[in-house]
Amino acid sequence: MKFTPRARWAALALSLSLLATGCAAGSNANGENGTSAAATAQNADGSVTVDTAFGQVSIPSDPQRVVALEGGAVPAVEAGLTPLATAGDTFDDSFGNVADYDAVENLPKILTPDGWDYEQLVELKPDLMIGFVRGGDDASQELSSEKKAEFEKLNAIAPTVLIRTNGSAGTRDASVAMAEILGSGEQAQAQKKAYEDKVAQVKSDYAQQLPQNTFAAVDAYEDVTVYSKISWIGKVLDDLGAPAAEVVKNEEAENGVFLSFEQLSKIDDATVVFYPQYTDGASDALDTLEGQATWTSLPAVKDKHAFGLTHFFPDNYGAALRVVEQIEESLKSL
């Protein structure tokens, strides 16, 4: 399945602007990993109480009409649920098994450039809404009043579970927390272990190649993004112990560093470059970059060490595993 760069960038922009940032000074009761606990307690009426980023919420023990908020589509589908609607942030390579995308491809999208479509949500009559809420990179800060107001609007429509994630890399564990609430926690934990085992195996098998190289993960549309270790793809590289390019090595507050095409020489030190690729093998990012002299002059490109990766923005461990598998294949050619 191929998506235009405009469609994918629009979805990312929505998730990173409308649903991002917004912390207020203070403390919270979330775990140190940046995700809210997902403990559950059975109630006398058959409902279940779960811990969320905004306190405890009672939800149906067997939800049937689920709306997937940001990051909620993959956990819902993997739990055997077909959502009524999604945030529109899901693509085929959002799933470890790309065929699972069929379940949500044509569903209504309830996130607009102006925010959530509350009227449509009311009409859908969900019995549960689930997703994550971004809390910035400081887990000690409370979520902002705007975030709390947004939650209250959603929760007034249907029980709403929002799991906090601090930084894009934390979305993987937020997905596990959602899976546990939806009843597929064992599967999600198995995916996490498979990912961790694969990372350990690749680090061992390529213990010489990894430290001898420098890596940059880039995307291109109107400019170039070099992703940091707190981003989706950057966290995978960091887990592998892959040294980052100097321009982004110390970036720990933002998902990446933005460069103009003329500034691409700032990743000259990268001996390996990764860029996003669709599951059909096409890459709009590469099409954009190949028209730039600064790209074709990069040492990694000249050495044929620039590789396309699907699942470039993994917010769950199933998708992250696919990334590691592809990185392993690229390491074989070094």
TrEMBL record:
Protein localization: Cell envelope
| First and last residue of the signal peptide | 1-29
Q: Which InterPro entries match?
A: ABC_transptr_periplasmic_BD, Bact_iron-sidero_bind
Q: PROSITE patterns per the record?
A: FE_B12_PBP, PROKAR_LIPOPROTEIN
The protein's matches in Pfam families, at most eight in alphabetical order, are given as: Peripla_BP_2
For this entry, list what GO says about its biological process: iron coordination entity transport
One GO term describing the cellular component: outer membrane-bounded periplasmic space
Q: Where is the Fe/B12 periplasmic-binding domain?
A: 65-334
Gene3D superfamilies in the cross-refs:
Nitrogenase molybdenum iron protein domain
Q: Which domain of life is it from?
A: Bacteria
Keyword field: Signal, Transport
Family membership, please give it: Belongs to the bacterial solute-binding protein 8 family.
Q: What is this protein called?
A: Fe/B12 periplasmic-binding domain-containing protein
The record lists the organism as: Glutamicibacter arilaitensis
